[in-house]
Amino acid sequence: MVKLIHTLADHGDDVNCCAFSSSLLATCSLDKTIRLYSLSDFTELPHSPLKLHTYAVHCCCFSPSGHILASCSTDGTTVLWNTQNGEPLAVMEQPSGSPVRVCQFSPDSTCLVSGAADGTVVLWNAQSYKLYRCGSVKDGSLVACAFSPDGNLFVTGSSCGDLTVWDDKMRCLHSEKAHDLGITCCDFSSQPVSDGEQGLQYFRLASCGQDCQIKIWVVSFTHILARSTEDEAKQFPEDWSEDDVSVWLCAQGLNDLVGIFKMNNIDGRELLNLTKESLADDLKIESLGLRSKVLRKIEELRTEVKTLSSGIPDEFLCPITRELMKDPVIASDGYSYEKEAMENWISKKKRTSPMTNLVLPSVVLTPNRTLKMAISRWLETHQK
Question: What are the residue boundaries of the U-box domain, all occurrences included (predicted)?
Fold first, then answer.
């Protein structure tokens, strides 16, 4: 038996997506809003609609706990919302600025994937709101995404029909043309299946497309195990391949330089040795502003290399400078920063948070004495 029990008609334009948590229903629309309803009586929550996006909202999804809602939009952002009060937690900008078509949380809520119209896919740390890894597909917009039940794999589907399997480190494990006229949706089965003879586990994946077909796939985790040792050796930028450098360029919003870097066979070691002279004379990058941006990003990368080599705990590093903090302070966004760096940021960036991109409620900086003591103890232990 099927029976209609309620109709909601609050949006002012086409409704693009709906999602359930254990207690709420979320909807998003071309009217730029997200609306939240209680499942007990389908009344709209007092803090609904959620308004922050400047263009159409294409997708929304709850974290597994239901405490956070993600929404993505033509405006090139993915926004995380506190479902209990409707307050935005973070605004995460797609590096390329392209319209974001799909977003999806990992099963443990630690990661979020966003896929854009230009084929870029970003894996975000959903707890720190920072970009973790970035990749891209060759053709088409990304319109579908799904995580495997264990969170070790996720799949993206494109409007050109390509199905791509990624691991949790954004390594592309497999890609092929799955549907002739574009993929519309994909999803993993919640239960794995086992190979009785070899004891291997597989995940079943379904994809559907505009070719009027639904295809069932089996995805094995074996690929990752076979490549893990090799890829662990590539965690340092100087060991990056040319493809790794291309992924890094996309993550920095420098997509237009991928072709130039590949043409000149720039791998990780070459990247770290680039200078303003080599960018101008060898790579023929004419724009002074673009050269300056590349050099700035490379210098940040060199700092990260030093950090990886030194083993400094990440929580001891200022999110702005990526250097060991000497005088840590807590800002009104709840994060700790080096005092001088944060004061400069506030004076130049119009009071936005370096971590969330949201406006800071206050510019008051409070000394973080506990963190300062922890850093001092760490230095005493490691500088003997």
Answer: 311-384
